[in-house]
Design a protein that fits this description.
Layout lengths: L1 H19 L9 H8 L4 E4 L38 H9 L6 H4 L8 H5 L2 E7 L2 E6 L3 E7 L17 E7 L2 E7 L4 E6 L4 E3 L4 E10 L2 E9 L8 E10 L15 H11 L12
Parallel strand pairs: 4-5
Antiparallel strand pairs: 1-2, 1-11, 2-3, 3-4, 5-6, 6-9, 7-8, 9-10, 10-11
Length: 273
């Protein structure tokens, strides 16, 4: 009987190994995941507001409503591979249609990540929560855990994010965005479409320096996927959460400010609005 029992148990183990493709001893435990995520936790500062701080990206010679060249866009717009539709969008768009400027709507990715002075990471089993300045909280579901969006379900302005580890790199992929007139960059007002896929790869340069490699894939506005990077330095926590808190914004006051600063628009025929 003992020999038969051992044979049955061995057969079960072999069957499980064939089904899973990996012995159970190699499965990642919660402790393994905790050890990997722990170095990312806390507050990170991009230092973009300092006089000699990180330059977010040039604006490619693009101009504002008065023909003044824009500087320090939230991403390297000068290298953005816009297709004919993307160029046509920039010709059409003006600041009066900007929801983040006139309606106090929070920035979407990737604009928010490019404009953020700082971000913070916290975590619990199966999820990472990121607090981004001018954006708020965003949940990333790890390792296949979390809800599944229904067909046609879109999320402004966070999208739907899933995450995983690739070696020691922390990788997030975000889809299911709504259309946003300021989605890619809120300085030149470059939109994103619901087809955009936004990928972030966070990797350590050293213990206190974090690089994020960003890839934007939006076939509606781009000829090809576009990749660029930013640096974040470890920093002490700030008030209002790691994202730096919220600034009160009143839509009516914002609209009046825009109208005062831009009395004419590309659609006013040279007349004050």
């Amino acid at each position: 009987m003992r020999a038969v029992s051992r044979t049955v148990k061995t057969g079960v183990v072999v069957a499980l190994w064939l089904l899973t493709g990996t012995p159970a001893v190699n499965a990642q435990t919660p402790d393994d995941e905790y050890d990997k995520i722990y170095p990312f936790l806390g507050n990170w500062d991009s230092q973009i507001s300092m006089p000699d701080g990180q330059d977010r990206g040039n604006c490619g010679g693009r101009t504002d409503e008065f023909g003044v060249k824009l500087v320090n866009c939230s991403m390297p717009v000068g290298q953005l591979p816009l297709n004919a539709r993307g160029e046509a969008w920039l010709k059409y768009m003006d600041i009066f249609q900007s929801p983040s400027t006139t309606e106090c709507v929070g920035l979407s990715l990737p604009s928010a990540l490019g404009s953020a002075g700082n971000i913070s990471f916290s975590a619990s089993p199966g999820r990472v929560v990121i607090n981004v300045q001018q954006f708020g909280e965003r949940t990333v579901w790890m390792n296949g855990i979390g809800p599944t969006p229904r067909n046609g379900e879109l999320f402004h302005h966070t999208g739907y994010s899933v995450g995983r580890f690739d070696g020691n790199d922390l990788v997030f992929e975000t889809t299911h965005f709504t259309f946003d007139p300021d989605g890619m960059d809120d300085h030149v007002h470059m939109a994103n479409s619901p087809q955009m896929k936004f990928t972030e790869r966070y990797q350590f340069i050293d213990d206190d320096t974090l690089r994020v490699i960003i890839t934007i894939d939006d076939p509606i506005f781009l000829t090809r996927p576009f990749t660029y990077s930013r640096l974040f330095m470890r920093a002490p926590a700030r008030g209002g959460g790691g994202g730096g808190g919220w600034t009160y914004c009143d839509p009516e006051a914002s609209r009046r400010e825009v109208e005062y600063n831009y009395p004419e628009s590309k659609y006013s025929g040279g007349q004050a609005r």
